Amino acid sequence: MSTMSRDIAPRGSSSLGRSPAVSGLAFAVLSAASFGLSGALAKGLLDAGWSTGAAVLARIALAAAVLVVPAWLSLAGRWQLLWRNRWLVLVFGVVAVAGCQFFYFQAVARMQVGLALLIEYTAPVAVIGWLWVRHGQRPGRLTLLGAALAGLGLLLVLDIMGDVEVSTAGVLWALGAMVGAATYFVLGAREAEGLPPLVLAAAGLTVGSVALALAGLVGLVPMRFTTDVATFSAITVPWWLPVLGLGVVTAAVAYASGIAASRRLGSRLASFVALLEVISALGFAWVLLGELPRPFQLVGGVLIVSGVVLAKLGEPRAPRR
């Protein structure tokens, strides 16, 4: 999941270094590439016998463990901030972190990684619809054009009139991930009352881990681990290597670098660079799994990404403070 709409525009960027834009772009690319690796690594574990719940729990629990110390230092003893934002952290952790990743991994288990991510990436369009219905924020023409373009791209990706068999269950799980991602964007765009973004990420990962572990204990979510090797194309690796990659690279590094990017670039530019996650996911799926969507599905993916870009360009700019 990318860092789209996580932070507001950067303040005091001159204190962040001599070239915050360059470092911000580097962090944004690192974040997108890191997030894009998650689907391919997860599919290797799922094919080896791991359950979806176990793969997600390993990812977010390890990431929470990595980020807890930096988050504690960032909080600097201001524990009242966590209590003041407890409902934000709770919903963020359960829906936007654990729920979104669980649904995405469920989709990946049933369809190609790239297709699942493309469906999830229609989330910004869903956010536009939510803001229109819930808050009366009517989108402009450019935003509506982007939404229509993304919708057309989604039809191409799903090939609803063609002969390519796409898992219905996989599509539904991917749409569930889209709802989780939309929730992530909506909550991430809110200006919490003084809660540092790194603390929100670490707290959300911790809450998500606890919620998913409890769901596993009561039998709601199957938890099946295995020490069998994981196979990626022609490469076989020990089970702990993709687990380490999921937790450290695709979660801890991805969240931390995404936050750093948003601090330097602002949410608008960072969200555009975050679209590289789609290209990254397609590349990793091709190299590690041998998966590559058909040409017309790739065209649909281009339309989805283009539609999201247009939709974002059509958003009104936040007023300067």
Adjacency order of strands in the biggest sheet? 1-2
The total number of structural domains is: 1
What integer value in Å does the Rg equal? 19 Å
- Low-confidence stretches at least 5 residues in length (pLDDT < 50)? 2-17
Report the sheet-strand fraction.
under 5%
| Helicity, as a percent range | over 70%
Average per-residue pLDDT, rounded, comes to 82
Structural class: mainly alpha
Strand elements, count: 2
- The H-and-E topology, N to C, reads as HHHHHHHHHHEEHHHH
Termini gap = 29 Å
Specify the overall morphology.
globular
The helix tally amounts to: 14
The biggest beta sheet, please? 2 strands, antiparallel
Describe, in plain words, how this protein is organized in 3D.
There is one protein chain. By secondary structure, the protein is mainly α. The protein has one domain (17-313). Helix content is 71%, strand content 2%. It has helices spanning 20-36, 38-48, 52-75, 80-84, 86-108, 113-120, 123-135, 141-158, 168-189, 197-217, 240-265, 267-273, 276-289, 295-313, and strands spanning 230-232, 235-237. It has a two-stranded antiparallel ribbon with strand order 1-2. A hairpin with a 2-residue loop joins β1 and β2 (235-237). α5 (86-108) crosses α10 (197-217), α8 (141-158) runs antiparallel to α14 (295-313) and α11 (240-265) runs antiparallel to α12 (267-273). The chain is globular and about 55 Å long.
